[in-house]
Specification:
It comes from Pseudoalteromonas rhizosphaerae. By secondary structure, the protein is mainly α. Helix content is 78%, strand content 0%. It is built from three helices and no strands. The radius of gyration is 19 Å and the shape is elongated.
Length: 87
């Protein structure tokens, strides 16, 4: 997907984002980040359902393993965003 933007407008956006201390993120990357946020919310919802089910059935679930997997996912997303923003 190509976005038609003049060089002057692009530089203006970069300067504005820099002055606001927020990185310039293309609209394609913004869409991908929105999708990742949606998926992360689903993961969090699933973890809550597992915890609820565990409490209801009085079956112990190793929360540490779930949290470690969530941390791996979070780290992977942060790495992806950093790499894409540096392009």
């Amino acid at each position: 997907m190509l976005i038609s933007i003049t060089p002057t407008s692009f530089i203006t956006l970069l300067v504005q984002h820099h002055l606001n201390k927020s990185p310039f993120i293309s609209s394609q990357l913004q869409d991908e980040i929105k999708e990742m946020k949606y998926l992360l919310r689903n993961v969090a919802n699933n973890i809550n359902q597992i915890a609820h089910r565990s409490n209801t059935l009085k079956v112990m679930v190793d929360e540490r393993d779930l949290l470690m997997e969530l941390k791996k996912l979070e780290d992977g997303i942060a790495t992806f965003i950093t790499k894409e923003a540096d392009k």
